What we know:
This protein is about 30% helix and about 25% strand. The chain has helices at about 20-30, 65-80, 120-130, 145-155; strands at about 5-10, 35-40, 40-45, 55-65, 95-100, 105-110, 110-115. It is α+β, with helices and mostly antiparallel strands. Helix 3 (about 120-130) packs antiparallel against helix 4 (about 145-155). The relative contact order is 0.20. The protein is built from four helices and seven strands; from the N terminus they run βαβββαβββαα. Strands 1, 2, 3, 4 and 5 form a five-stranded antiparallel beta sheet that branches.
Amino acid sequence: xxxxxxxxxxxxxxxxxxxxxxxxxxxxxxxxxxxxxxxxxxxxxxxxxxxxxxxxxxxxxxxxxxxxxxxxxxxxxxxxxxxxxxxxxxxxxxxxxxxxxxxxxxxxxxxxxxxxxxxxxxxxxxxxxxxxxxxxxxxxxxxxxxxxxxxxxxxxxxx
Length: 159
């Protein structure tokens, strides 16, 4: 059975049964299993109507699951943590997203890998830099480091 590697984005901005958003991320990492590397936590302002700051991180994991099976497991972890679907941009106990997959791109009902918006999200790219800076986006061919640098320049954050 093949083994795949995934870059997973983790975010939380609401206390849950494990405690603070940082504690929720730590508990989600334990639930994920197969963790090879974890970025430092990053505190970021919310997007959209939520008022609470987020704790964000990225992890590299190893799994024998193909993307749809891993997505189903991630959604089950989210439900187990108390996440309820249907509220975009709201406060959440945990958010787990597949960002990149070692085998390149995947497209199917309800799942696109690489994650469609990761190239524009500093709160995903900065943690991802810590664990997968050289990993290439199969769509653009750019490394995570190059994508982050371009986003920084576009926002006036880099030289």
